[in-house]
Design goal:
By secondary structure, the protein is an alpha+beta fold. Helices cover 34% and strands 26% of the residues. Strands 1-2-3-4-6-5 form a 6-stranded antiparallel beta sheet, covered by helices on one side. Strand 2 and strand 3 form a beta hairpin.
Amino acid sequence: MNNQQAQTYLLAKPQSTLDYPFGDDVKVFKVKNKMFATLAIGKMGKGDDDGNQYWWMNLKCEPSEAEMLRDIFPAVIPGYHMNKRLWNTVILDASIPRGEIERMIDNSFKLVVSKMTKKDQQSILIMI
């Protein structure tokens, strides 16, 4: 999955919006003004052999699953500039199957929605 495919998938979530509260370099995806993902050019020199840097996506995750995903996939690291217990950074370097990244996005979205009021949850879940 590349950054454009990720952005399209993120914005397809019910009531998903794109915002830039951290500047033009960091895309922030929200549902009902609650962040469930970020997307930005990666840091710390992680890139391909041609010198291109990979896009990094931060996703919310249950703590036990976050650690498990980090053990399974080298391209999943503790959340960059996030609470490392609750967020993972997924490096979009084509090493993780698209379906797995979509599952991680779905879980992040659902975790954020699950913390909302019942009324807000219902207005979102009715669209799924």
